[in-house]
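Continuing the batch. This is chain 6 of the set; chains 1 through 5 are on the previous pages. Same settings as before, nothing changed between runs. Recording input and output for traceability.
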Amino acid sequence: MQAWHVHENGEPSEVMRLADVERPTPGDGQVLLKVRAANINFPDALLCRGHYQVRPPLPFTPGVEICGETEDGRRVLATPALPYGGLAEYTVADAAAVLPAPEALDDAEAAALHIGYQTGWFGLHRRARLEAGETLLVHAAAGGVGSAAVQLGKAAGATVIGVVGGAGKAAVARELGCDVVVDRRTEDVVAAVKEATGGRGADVIYDPVGGEAYTQSAKVVAFEGRIVVVGFASGSIPSPALNHALVKNYSILGLHWGLYRTRNPKLVLHCHEQLTELAARGAIKPLVSERVPLGGAAGAVQRVADGSTTGRVVVVPGPAEGEAV
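Output for chain 6:
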């Protein structure tokens, strides 16, 4: 079979190499999966760079999220067991963590449902307790993680403000359903959010970016608001001023979705059931901006790493399922 290997750490386009290798052999409690579609995530770039919290032994195959097919023909979602990632024709995953793929979504859409939407659901509902009628601000709203939060926020009845970088991404954010879109390249984010909220600020802020985005968040969070820290795509990890959180009465909430898989796996299954129901009634639908063949995976990971993509880029082994949206 073909699989992408990383033999040394560095930029994805430089260190990922397509190779002919043997199919992986499942270990105890694992299943072999044929990869139907593999969604590219920012952690794939971090894995290549050696900057992720998990550092699999070299060589390894990136790809942390797939829609796959079991040997008995079931279509499932899985997070592959590294070092056998999903950017390959076959992978392995822990049998207990495999979830049924929603019938309402095609392979590429289903591959993009798992990590980003589970993170959004846990962040908005489990951690921030978002309520209908509240205002949600989403940084990087046109990206893979942000677009999921936008859709989940709208499904929950929130007013959604999307912050993006560039006119093209602003158009995508509007199509996703953002009520207000702020282009950080041409607008003052703090002033625009305060104007949009009548000076009150946002009740919940979803931040996968860090750095300057977090600084802006602290300036526009409402009384008793909640800032959900999801990641640091900017590469800069902020140091919050806790005295500021005290005098403004807001909460800073961390979210590491992966912990729920070991600490509360039943809640992960409950979340998947909720997401499946939302997908079935059309309330959420992963935005797949590109479907690329397996041979284009290295370039796809690099584009996600560079922040030049919108929505999700999905690798489909064999011919691409369709043209870029």
